[in-house]
Amino acid sequence: MPLKMLQVTVPVAAEAHVKKIAASNSVVSCERLAELDGDHVQYVLLTRAGERQKVIDDIQKLLATSSRARINIMPVEATLPDVEAREAGDTREELMIKMRQGAHLDSGYLVLTLLSTIVALIGMVQDNVAVVIGAMVIAPLLGPNLAFAFGTSLGDKKLMSDAFTTAFTGMSVAIAMAAIVGMIWGELPESQELLGRTEVGLGGMALAAASGIAGVLSLTSGLSMTLVGVMVAVALLPPAATLGFMLGIKQWQLANGALLLLIVNVVCVNLAGLLVFFAKGIRPRLWFERRMATPYILSGMAVWSLLLLLLIFVIGATPS
User: Fold this and answer.
1) What does the record list as coiled-coil region(s) (predicted)?
2) Which of 94, 122, 162, 170 lies 20 to 30 Å (CA to CA) from residue 104?
């Protein structure tokens, strides 16, 4: 969303700093609301996307002056007279809230993963593309993958750990559920949708990379995640479900193909996400935090890139 309102509570002694920050960053408006009990005052700043991160970073330096100091970020649907603000985007702090939600592992996430796996298997076994797409809408696989890339770009070890645990658990649940269905089914169905997920090529890599790039661009621009969620789920859930199903019916060679496709997609999505976060300038606020995050960023790029090159070599050496 292009315009957002910052509701700022600071000590009265910091009023001049708030006004200076607003003036130096050319915010749309800066209005004093009221003086509060305990020598505090509230201001509201109407900000555009391009200036919002700098304003928040500067005001955060004032938060340490009082335990009551606070910044509330609120959406603005419209304002009159109209303000030209074409650029849309979320700040680092807003993205962090979304990423923590995406990396959160709870019963709801597990239930959605189970349901989407069952629906995806039904669609693939029946060669019903519409049903497979319906499963992709359910699948909550976008969050943990992008959260891991986001945590890497900030050097946030806890977020990276939570995201990895959630992503690994989700994949494991999908594979286990599909394996159970495969054991019950007992034979290989004649399904192009299913067999198509046992082969991997450069086209599959391009799909996963495009999904990761689209996901991060949508996220950082504050746009709806629905369509992007479908794209990433298409890249991740079907090969995971296919892998489990092939293991369940003991088709080891086809299972290897599905596993290779799943690994390729995970690597491409994470590498693309990390590169876009880096290109968009997502960094920690403090200089020493940025310095500590640099090894994580460089290591992440190096590891994902090397894995991708290794996978390209394996795919090229695998007989078709």
Assistant:
1) none
2) 122
Peptide bond into 81 cis (omega under 30): yes
DSSP for residue 192: H
The mean per-residue pLDDT over the stretch 126-144 comes to 77
Q: Residue 44: beta bridge partners?
A: 7, 31
| 3-state SS assignment for residue 188 | coil
What is the arithmetic mean of pLDDT over 3-26? Answer: 93
Give the other-Cβ count within 10 Å of 180's Cβ: 15
Joined tokens for residue 182: 């495969």
How far is residue 90's CA from residue 44's CA, in Å, rounded to a whole number? 18
Q: What is the mean pLDDT of the chain?
A: 87
User: What pLDDT, on a 0 to 100 scale, did the predictor assign at position 214?
Assistant: 78
Q: What span, in angstroms and rounded, lies between the C-alpha atoms of 82 and 74? A: 18
pLDDT category of residue 28 using cuts at 50, 70 and 90 = very high
Section 38-67 average pLDDT? 91
Torsion sign across C-alpha atoms 43, 93, 208, 106:
negative
DSSP annotation string for 26-47: T-SEEEEEEEETTTEEEEEEEE
Cβ atoms of 194 and 125 closer than 8 Å: yes
CB atoms within 10 A of CB 82: 7
15, 7 contact by CB (below 8 A): no
The CATH code belonging to domain 3-75 is 3.30.70.120
Residue 320, pLDDT > 70, answer no
Cα–Cα distance measured from residue 280 to residue 63, given in angstroms and rounded to the nearest whole number: 26
Tell me where in the chain the CATH 3.30.70.120 domain(s) lie: 3-75
* Secondary structure class of 67 (helix, strand, coil): coil
